[in-house]
């Protein structure tokens, strides 16, 4: 098939390779510096925030596309409009239900699904009224991507500033105010083959920086969760997707597990970022990218043979004061426990750089991916962390 990715996002080489390895012709529309031309068969520059711009770029190919996908959170609704104009299938879900956190949680509440959201504010005064003195609260843009603009506010005196920072990133100017939920954080990756037919493919442990920003610093797949918690997370994911009207595509849900069960933070109608699709394939054999395409065109896929029992990623971040030293050296990588478990290593910053405390994925300084038995993978992570406590949200 000829598959168009109308909005790629960053670091999506694995997804492009997955589709091409499956025999598909892959095209991309995005900003030129974000397109890895060696991993696609066709590409054009286009404004991923403009239906007309992306439609014009897609139409310039001179041939018909068979499906349109989008891996850029900010462009998912726009890409589906492009697909409609082209007359080809795309992920099917109601517009706004997965892009706007206000709409999302409003719909969940209407359907009786527990939500941490206290409401949506357009002014700092509304934000203060919604918080109602119940601190900490989480302030976030309703319609931005990733963790940008998200902040945990403990002190009422910091609320107005947090509102302004979030509102500056929100295209609508609207800011969601959530109660802060304590509990271990998980993500759930699922595919909806057809309306009412959702299959959970993986549950992943999530590691974070401590508040106020809670930026993801790593993932482990599969999660070390009890069977009971897995059942609860699976049921909560299916219920949320049904409530939001997902009809076909993949999703990435983020939960915190509380004493009364899982609470949904948010859910995206696209494959996960943060290299999670690669971790999932390593540990389960499921490829989220080919599963998404299959669901979109009315087909189904099955998992391949997993390459490992367990996989993990650790992102490197700064603390605002300590010069960055590359955590994995040639010497460390050449001996246990890293030797044999290390699958990929990348640095985005040179040694000596002093990076700010991370406020979003853009502040990551590099990453290491590991895979092997669970014992081997966790030993490699422990050696890399060198005794540093990793926060799970609890």
Query: SSE order in H/E notation?
Result: EHEEHEHHEHEEHEEEEHEEHHEHEEH
Largest sheet: 8 strands, antiparallel
Content of β-strand:
25-35%
Main β-sheet, spatial strand arrangement: 13-12-9-10-11-14-16-15
Task: Describe the overall structure.
With 394 residues, the chain is of the alpha+beta class. Helix content is 28%, strand content 26%. The protein is built from eleven helices and 16 strands. A hairpin with a 2-residue loop joins strand 9 and strand 10. Helix 2 crosses helix 3 and helix 5 crosses helix 6. The radius of gyration is 21 Å and the shape is globular. The relative contact order is 0.12.
Quick overview:
This protein has 394 residues and is an alpha+beta fold.
Please render the helix and strand layout as text:
Layout: E1 2-6, H1 13-21, E2 25-30, E3 42-45, H2 51-59, E4 67-69, H3 76-86, H4 101-110, E5 117-121, H5 124-131, E6 137-141, E7 151-153, H6 159-169, E8 175-179, E9 184-194, E10 197-208, E11 216-221, H7 227-244, E12 249-258, E13 261-268, H8 276-284, H9 288-296, E14 310-316, H10 330-333, E15 342-347, E16 366-372, H11 374-385
Parallel strand pairs: 1-2, 1-4, 2-3
Antiparallel strand pairs: 5-8, 6-7, 6-8, 9-10, 9-12, 10-11, 11-14, 12-13, 14-16, 15-16
Considering the chains and any ligands shown, give keywords for the structure.
394 residues, four-stranded parallel beta sheet, 11 helices, 28% helix
């Amino acid at each position: 098939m000829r598959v168009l990715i109308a909005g790629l996002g960053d670091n999506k080489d694995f997804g492009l390779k997955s589709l091409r390895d499956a025999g598909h012709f892959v095209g991309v529309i995005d900003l030129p510096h974000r397109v890895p031309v060696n991993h696609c068969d066709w590409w054009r520059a286009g404004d991923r925030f403009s239906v007309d711009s992306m439609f014009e770029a897609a139409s310039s190919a001179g041939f018909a596309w068979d499906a349109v996908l989008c891996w850029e959170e900010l462009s998912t609704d726009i890409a589906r409009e492009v697909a409609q104009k082209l007359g080809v299938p795309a992920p099917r879900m109601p517009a706004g239900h997965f892009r706007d956190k206000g709409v999302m949680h409003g719909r969940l509440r209407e359907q009786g699904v527990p939500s941490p959201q206290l409401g949506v504010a357009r002014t700092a005064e509304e934000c203060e009224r919604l918080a109602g003195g119940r601190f900490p609260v989480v302030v976030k843009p309703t319609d931005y991507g990733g963790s940008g603009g998200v902040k945990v506010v403990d002190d009422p005196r910091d609320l107005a500033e947090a509102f302004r920072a979030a509102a500056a990133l929100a295209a609508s100017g609207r800011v969601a105010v959530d109660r802060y939920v304590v509990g271990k954080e998980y993500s759930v990756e699922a595919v909806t083959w057809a309306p009412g037919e959702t299959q959970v493919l993986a549950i992943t442990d999530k590691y974070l920086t401590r508040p106020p920003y809670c930026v993801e610093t790593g993932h482990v797949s599969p999660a070390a969760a009890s069977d009971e918690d897995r059942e609860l997370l699976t049921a909560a994911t299916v219920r949320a997707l049904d409530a939001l009207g997902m009809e076909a595509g993949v999703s990435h849900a983020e939960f915190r597990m509380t004493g009364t069960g899982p609470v949904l933070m948010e859910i995206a109608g696209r494959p996960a970022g943060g290299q999670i699709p690669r971790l999932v394939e390593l540990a389960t054999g499921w490829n989220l990218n080919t599963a998404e395409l299959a669901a979109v065109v009315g087909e189904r896929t099955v998992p391949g043979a997993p390459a490992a029992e367990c996989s993990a990623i650790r992102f490197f971040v700064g603390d605002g004061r300590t010069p960055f030293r590359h955590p994995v050296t040639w010497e460390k990588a050449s001996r246990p426990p890293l030797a044999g478990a290390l699958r990929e290593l990348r640095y985005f910053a040179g040694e000596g750089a002093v990076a700010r405390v991370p406020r979003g994925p853009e502040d990551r300084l590099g990453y290491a991916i590991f895979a092997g038995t669970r014992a081997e993978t966790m030993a490699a992570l422990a050696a890399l962390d060198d005794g540093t406590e990793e926060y799970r949200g609890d």
